[in-house]
């Protein structure tokens, strides 16, 4: 009789726990649904994240989808997952001597605790650095660029101000600001371009030092009026940063002269 009551009590508690899990846990939140599973809280680092060596940042994914992407992207060994925002960071190895940082509500997990069968037909496919495995509708697979494989360009006298740290997604721009005492010249972005190469669109100039000519302006900066210093004198010049070779210097006087001449010829043609 007692054994029967114990069994009924156990069954009731199990059913209640299952119902609560189904009601409050996300559909793909394995850890929430199975809190005592070996792939659950024993192996997930709660409220911890890796701040460096972020290969890709992906959005609107569940934890399982995040891990699946990790298996499909070259170089990935772990993920950061922000549950509230559903943001997934695909990570390279943690640098020697670096520790995980505290971030409430986040999870850090090595991909080694999951089965690579999550990646489907990409499970045993080897990509080159910077690539991801793509499953085709025809049933085949191929590689595609997904991040910049080269080391991040050094941004002297500047700091990355991305909320969750610098990342390497293809065509993504990381925003920077100059340190105190330095002036931002160009556009404040470091971009991984469509060819998987870094393009730094700015430099931070000491406020007491001006560029000598337009060739001192970094490649990727927009064409426009810049102030240069020549023989201890300052000039406003137009820098053509789009024509092949970039960094062409045109004096504003010449631009105004050309504009006035053009308008004069227009008026003569109309009269």
TrEMBL record:
<keyword id="KW-0430">Lectin</keyword>
<keyword id="KW-0106">Calcium</keyword>
<dbReference type="GO" id="GO:0005615">
    <property type="term" value="C:extracellular space"/>
</dbReference>
<keyword id="KW-0732">Signal</keyword>
<dbReference type="Pfam" id="PF00147">
    <property type="entry name" value="Fibrinogen_C"/>
</dbReference>
<feature type="domain" description="Fibrinogen C-terminal">
    <location>
        <begin position="205"/>
        <end position="250"/>
    </location>
</feature>
<dbReference type="GO" id="GO:0070492">
    <property type="term" value="F:oligosaccharide binding"/>
</dbReference>
<dbReference type="InterPro" id="IPR035976">
    <property type="entry name" value="Sushi/SCR/CCP_sf"/>
</dbReference>
<dbReference type="Pfam" id="PF00084">
    <property type="entry name" value="Sushi"/>
</dbReference>
<keyword id="KW-1015">Disulfide bond</keyword>
<dbReference type="InterPro" id="IPR002181">
    <property type="entry name" value="Fibrinogen_a/b/g_C_dom"/>
</dbReference>
<dbReference type="InterPro" id="IPR000436">
    <property type="entry name" value="Sushi_SCR_CCP_dom"/>
</dbReference>
<dbReference type="InterPro" id="IPR014716">
    <property type="entry name" value="Fibrinogen_a/b/g_C_1"/>
</dbReference>
<feature type="domain" description="Sushi">
    <location>
        <begin position="146"/>
        <end position="206"/>
    </location>
</feature>
<protein>
    <recommendedName>
        <fullName>Fibrinogen C-terminal domain-containing protein</fullName>
    </recommendedName>
</protein>
<feature type="signal peptide">
    <location>
        <begin position="1"/>
        <end position="21"/>
    </location>
</feature>
<keyword id="KW-0479">Metal-binding</keyword>
<keyword id="KW-0768">Sushi</keyword>
<dbReference type="InterPro" id="IPR036056">
    <property type="entry name" value="Fibrinogen-like_C"/>
</dbReference>
<dbReference type="GO" id="GO:0046872">
    <property type="term" value="F:metal ion binding"/>
</dbReference>
């Amino acid at each position: 009789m007692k054994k029967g009551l114990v069994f009924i009590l156990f069954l009731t508690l199990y059913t209640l726990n299952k119902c609560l899990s189904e009601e409050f846990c996300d559909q793909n939140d394995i850890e929430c649904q199975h809190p005592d599973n070996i792939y659950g809280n024993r192996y997930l680092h709660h409220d911890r994240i890796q701040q460096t060596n972020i290969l890709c940042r992906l959005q609107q994914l569940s934890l399982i989808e995040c891990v699946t992407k990790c298996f499909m992207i070259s170089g990935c060994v772990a993920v950061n997952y922000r549950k509230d925002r559903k943001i997934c960071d695909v990570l390279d190895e943690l640098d020697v001597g670096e520790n995980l940082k505290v971030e409430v509500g986040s999870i850090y997990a090595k991909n080694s605790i999951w089965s690579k069968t999550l990646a489907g037909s990409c499970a045993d496919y080897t990509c080159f650095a910077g690539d991801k495995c793509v499953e085709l509708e025809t049933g085949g697979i191929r590689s595609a660029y997904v991040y910049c494989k080269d080391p991040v360009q050094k941004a002297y006298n500047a700091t990355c101000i991305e909320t969750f740290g610098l990342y390497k997604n293809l065509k993504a721009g990381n925003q920077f600001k100059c340190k105190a005492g330095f002036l931002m010249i160009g556009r404040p972005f470091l971009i991984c371009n469509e060819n998987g190469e870094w393009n730094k669109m700015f430099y931070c100039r000491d406020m007491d030092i001006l560029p000598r000519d337009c060739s001192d302006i970094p490649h990727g900066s927009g064409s426009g009026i810049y102030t240069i210093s020549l023989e201890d004198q300052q000039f406003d010049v137009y820098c053509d940063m789009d024509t092949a070779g970039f960094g062409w210097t045109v004096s504003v006087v010449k631009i105004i002269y050309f504009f006035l001449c053009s308008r004069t010829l227009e008026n003569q043609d109309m009269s």
